[in-house]
């Protein structure tokens, strides 16, 4: 998040911070199915409050934490997981078939390539793993060379150094003129994604960087779609969001989706939380910061 994005989320103080949450169910709405009292769940706390002792989550976009998975890590996968799943698989995103569906079989993921610009971000790392789960033949991450090993372990088939001066030619060397799907989580050069897309077929670029990146949108043509995906719009992407939250605990349980570089702040330590926010604001380190409000003593 940059300073403008923080301002977009925080209108006035005091404010309930934190959109990711895991915790124990202490009260349920009447219409809620499943999620018995006392169960350990994770979800996106959409009205904020992930850093509070109590918060409200929407049961449609929540899941029980698998017994073999850390509840701390599960909470840390909720917002980016939801956002990136919608970016890849919803009609408002790349519109790719949901993994293992009948449409996915017909689509033939194995012969397809995807480029992920900003593969080293939290969202990029989840995109790599979801692309691997879906079965993409080539998963090309554009990210720091120093983080390449982690991205290869997550399932990237190729990592192209984001500081290289010939990114386009390296990507074309790998995938030819075949890339029709690009997910951009953070890139600073608006010309890069359009340059990587197939000249012959065009394709779709989805970015998650607010506010709507008019610089990227300018590359729309009749063959090139450019979309901004807001992960908070789960209602507008109900089908994909529901599928995602149904499959997510299985992916965690099987080890298909995970976090690697994580810094856990134990307790609401103001200095530690401030330090984490400062790191997040500068997009530095490639580390996921999670605050464990309680349960660590
Ligand atoms: N639309 C939505 O609903 C939504 C939801 C969540 C997040 N977001 C937005 O998505 C963006 C990414 O968030 P995040 O939490 O995934 O990021 P993050 O984890 O904080 O990303 C940090 C990483 O970004 C990479 N990076 C930094 N500058 C870069 C650059 N110029 N080009 C390419 N990579 C760069 C670095 O990795 P390497 O050095 O390893 O490359 C760095 O470690 C933010 O703008 C955030 O606000 C939007």
Automatic annotation (TrEMBL):
<dbReference type="GO" id="GO:0016651">
    <property type="term" value="F:oxidoreductase activity, acting on NAD(P)H"/>
</dbReference>
<dbReference type="Pfam" id="PF00107">
    <property type="entry name" value="ADH_zinc_N"/>
</dbReference>
<dbReference type="InterPro" id="IPR047122">
    <property type="entry name" value="Trans-enoyl_RdTase-like"/>
</dbReference>
<protein>
    <recommendedName>
        <fullName>Alcohol dehydrogenase-like C-terminal domain-containing protein</fullName>
    </recommendedName>
</protein>
<feature type="domain" description="Alcohol dehydrogenase-like C-terminal">
    <location>
        <begin position="124"/>
        <end position="208"/>
    </location>
</feature>
<dbReference type="InterPro" id="IPR013149">
    <property type="entry name" value="ADH-like_C"/>
</dbReference>
<dbReference type="InterPro" id="IPR036291">
    <property type="entry name" value="NAD(P)-bd_dom_sf"/>
</dbReference>
<dbReference type="InterPro" id="IPR011032">
    <property type="entry name" value="GroES-like_sf"/>
</dbReference>
């Amino acid at each position: 998040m940059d300073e403008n994005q923080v301002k977009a989320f925080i209108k006035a103080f005091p404010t309930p911070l934190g959109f990711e949450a895991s915790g124990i169910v202490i009260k349920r709405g009447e219409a809620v199915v499943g999620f018995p009292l006392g169960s350990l769940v994770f979800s996106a706390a959409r009205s904020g409050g992930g850093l509070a002792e109590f918060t409200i989550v929407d049961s449609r976009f929540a899941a029980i934490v698998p017994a073999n998975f850390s509840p701390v890590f599960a909470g840390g996968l909720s917002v980016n997981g939801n956002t990136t799943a919608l970016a890849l698989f919803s009609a408002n995103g790349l519109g790719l078939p949901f993994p293992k569906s009948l449409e996915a079989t017909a689509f033939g993921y194995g012969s397809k390539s995807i480029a992920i610009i900003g593969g080293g971000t939290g969202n990029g790392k989840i995109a790599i793993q979801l692309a691997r789960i879906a079965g993409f033949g080539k998963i090309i991450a554009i990210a720091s060379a120093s983080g390449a090993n982690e991205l290869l372990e997550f399932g990237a088939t190729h990592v192209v150094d984001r500081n290289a001066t010939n990114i386009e030619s390296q990507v074309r060397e790998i995938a030819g003129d075949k890339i029709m799907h690009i997910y951009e989580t953070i890139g600073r050069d608006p010309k890069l994604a359009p340059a990587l897309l197939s000249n012959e077929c065009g394709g779709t670029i989805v970015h998650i960087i607010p506010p709507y990146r008019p610089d990227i949108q300018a590359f729309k043509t009749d063959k090139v779609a450019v979309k901004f995906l807001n992960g908070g719009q789960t209602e507008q992407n109900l089908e994909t969001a529901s599928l995602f939250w149904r499959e997510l605990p299985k992916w965690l349980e099987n080890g298909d989706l995970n976090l690697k570089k994580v810094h856990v702040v134990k307790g609401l330590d103001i200095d530690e939380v401030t330090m984490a926010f400062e790191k997040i604001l500068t997009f530095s380190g490639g580390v996921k910061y999670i605050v464990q409000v309680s349960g660590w003593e």
